[in-house]
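Re: that chain you flagged

S.,

Sorry for the slow reply, it's been a week of failed gels. I finally had a moment to sit down with the sequence you sent. For the record, here it is as I used it:
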Amino acid sequence: MGVGTVWVHVEPAPDGVASISQELLAAARRFGERVEAVCAGGDPDAVCAAAGEHGAAALHYLERPSEALVGPLLATSLAAAVAGSDDPPAVILFATTYDGRDVAGRLSARLDAPVITNVTELAVNDGALVGIEPIFGGTTNVHTRFTGAGPQIFLIRPKSFQAEPVGGAPAQRVELPAADCGAGGAARVIGSHAEQSTGPKLDEAAVVVSGGRGLGEAGKYEMIEQLAGLLGGAAGASRAIVDAGWVPYSQQVGQTGKVVKPDVYIACGISGATQHLVGMKNSRNIVAINKDAEAPIFGVADLGIVGDVHQVLPRLIEALQARG
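Prediction finished late last night. Pasting the structure tokens below so you have them in one place:
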């Protein structure tokens, strides 16, 4: 049973839309009678093609000046579009990303509508969409539904749904007029910096190798990067070593970092705090290396190695190098 029209905030990417946006479009198709996308900036033709490929019938496209912040501009414009529509969306889905959280929060304030956050699963109960959110480190789920008028706003955690292209025609482009942001639009972008990296992105890699406090010192993180490179994967980290300044926040895996779901996740010197497990426990295969046989990480591992990472990792790296 559908819940009406679902709008999905999609984030532009060089090849159309971001992978998390593809996941949200797949989720919307499961519950919406009609799916439409919303986007600010990017190549409109590429975004229309990608959105249609993943099931969106229309794309509400907002031209974004390079100096304008996405949050205030898109939230204000979306609020005006929803308020002035004869057929407003019943549900609006956002990803739990920087822009997604920003726009959803601002839109919530402008529409005086609540937001259900940190959702990892959706279900329909008595004709209403229910957001399922894990709490207490993922040991318990909370089921939440809206009781008031829509639109219902949900923030979805990455990797909660599988992207499923349907081969649809490009979405029909509908211009989304830019609204006056007022004081909210006073800030201007004067420059942007894209982090330089090699190899696959952390949240898209098939193999992720992460290091924790068990490495002992910042310099030992090179072993994590080397192993990840040999496996064609990405290097991640626990919050402990990010907070210690060993690696940047962009490499953090966990509840307050990135959620990953690779084919293989290798945890090196990570004890397995619940906050870290939330970000990687759904990996297809988990390998844990830790000298503490009682470390919680072994509770979710498919393969556990009780040993010192300073001895295990060099041997593993050497073996992989020998294989060429």
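What I noticed first: The CA atoms of residues 51 and 171 lie 6 Å apart.

Talk soon,
D.
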